[in-house]
Amino acid sequence: MQKYDIGLIGLAVMGQNLALNMESKGYRAAVYNRTGKRTEEFIGGKAKGRNIKAAYTFEDLVSSLARPRKIMLMVKAGDPIDKTIEALIPLLSKGDLIIDGGNSFYKDTIRRKKYLAEKDILYIGAGVSGGEEGALKGPAMMPGGSEEAYSLAASIFEDISARAEDGVPCVSHIGPDGAGHFVKMVHNGIEYGDMQLIGETVWALKSALGYDAEAIADIMDSWNSNDDILSSYLIEITGNGMREKDKSSDRYLVDATADITGMKGTGTWTVVSALELLVPIPAIAAAVFSREMSQDKDIRLSVSDKLKISSSCHSVDPEEFIRAAHDALYIAKISSYAQGFALMEAASEKYGWELDMGTIAAGWRAGCIIRAQFLSRITEEYESKKKLANLMEAPYFSDFINKNLASLAAFIEAAHRSGVPTLAMDSSYDYILQMASPVMVSAQAAAQQRDYFGAHGYFKLRKDSPEVETKADGSCQQYHTEWMDKDRPEKKI
């Protein structure tokens, strides 16, 4: 009996397209879906004539696979994953491999990997990015798990993944247990930031210049040219979307689209994880909060009836504003990505993952939603210096920010004058200002406030530098002032 190379559970569009992708690369795939009707439709439709087997029970699926068995789950994150794993465990043997290709929370992946290791079953949590088209033609993949587990699936992953311009597959072994799903989560958080920054730019072009969707599409197309630093998939599809006409009216479709943006949770997870790891990601957080505010449509309608915000439309020079918007968007993008990479660095240190930031950036150059020319530059910067305190200190990016930061400030000011909120742009700008501040006066004031009302103590700067005063052992020297005493004695604590 012919044995199949891999099993795939879950035949929504992503699962179907991954199965077709695998088969097109010469792999024999067996597929299963909870509802047999969908399996029948797939086998009789898109998979007709392909080397893809329909399985209608887990027993049938598992028995059809070559050992060690490899089964990829394209199932909704959360409880459905756990239930599927529990159903598979009695049917699997030592050394078999389960791959979770969904958007699972990385802590769940850590838990599942540990649980299955106790049963001698291998486990990979693989982030898959690129949407339906990527799944079919080549996604970016971010697998995390043991070296042994990755070695079983490496050839399949490399064959089905997208390839960058240099021919390198957009997949690599990210690291142990939950590393792959963590990196995919941050990828999605960065994606939120990218989309919000582009959206704010579109809004400003519309309000400050009075441009219609067609004119904005032209700008996006020019920014997406091969030699432009903003060239990216998201800029491309923004331009394409702007040209689309609403079939039921003469309006552009974007103007007829309700101003409500959905989300599936990975952006929220990114913000929560940043809070847990004590890493500031204000631009990404602003993007998440803006989506949440978009869903408060009734509240916004009510408030907008009471608050009449004045604006000065069309008061800027178009060519000058477009140039400023271009550079502002690029600088804000650098800031947002710096925040995402800082979050991955913190997680790598906490969990001992030893993430390679250059390899991660290289893996995002094709196939995924945030694919962009920009990522090749990030890859180069990390290749020249493996460890960066922050992405913004890389010479190329620091030089660009130093020369053009005024464009971001000018863009924000003009947008605000036109009544356009720029939550992510503001946060990107302020992140740069704060990270570039050797002394944060706001933190000095807050430190004194905390010591005044709660005796929490504070540190002191050295007399001759902005560095913190330390003890002989290298730790920071803490002080407390007796604020209620008229002589205000100060003591070391």
Mean pLDDT value: 95
How would you name the oligomeric state of the polypeptide chains in this document? Answer: single chain
Low-confidence stretches: none
Identify the strand order in the major beta sheet.
3-2-1-4-5-6-7
Proportion in β-strands: 5-15%
Write up what this structure looks like.
This protein is α/β, with parallel strands linked by helices and 493 residues long. It is 54% helix and 9% strand. The strands form 2 sheets. It has a 7-stranded mixed β-sheet with strand order 3-2-1-4-5-6-7, sandwiched between helices. A 3-stranded antiparallel β-sheet has the order 8-9-10. The longest helix has 34 residues, at 318-351. It is globular. The N and C termini lie far apart (76 Å). The mean pLDDT is 95.
